[in-house]
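User: structure tokens for this one?
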Amino acid sequence: MFPLVLGPDNLPAITDPEEAAQDIPLSVFSALTHAKDPALPVILDALATALANASGETAKGWAEYTEIGLGDSRTRTLWRNLMATWTSRFPGSGTLIEETHIKGRAEGLTQGLAQSQAEDILRILDVRGVDIPEATRKRIIECTDLDTLSTWFDRAITAARSEELFTEA
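Assistant:
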């Protein structure tokens, strides 16, 4: 007997709402396995769009499963906010208004995730007793690149000085 294990290495990140709508269960598992991926806001947005167009009970069940499966408070909050704000009157119509709304929401979610990651970096450094000069604090807070913030987060765990966040390895 061989167990089936799903993970980000063998399950694609589904970022297209149409693709997500074709197989909602797979899209849910995609979102859950890619919960640490910097593209998570786009993945969740595609899933939310697919669920908005699905039948009521199916959508509710998978939305709840997704929320519970995300677990982490930051990603769970991201999902809850996304589900609370979905209000397309003509879902899937591809109008400029709909496309702009979806793009704006994804950008807002990404900004929120970046802000949360920056706060986590500062908290780690603070708890570890690492001095954070104002210029460093400002640089961390103003960063919006999720990949950079992820790198800085990893470095914050072991850095003896806050400047070590910015050194190339």
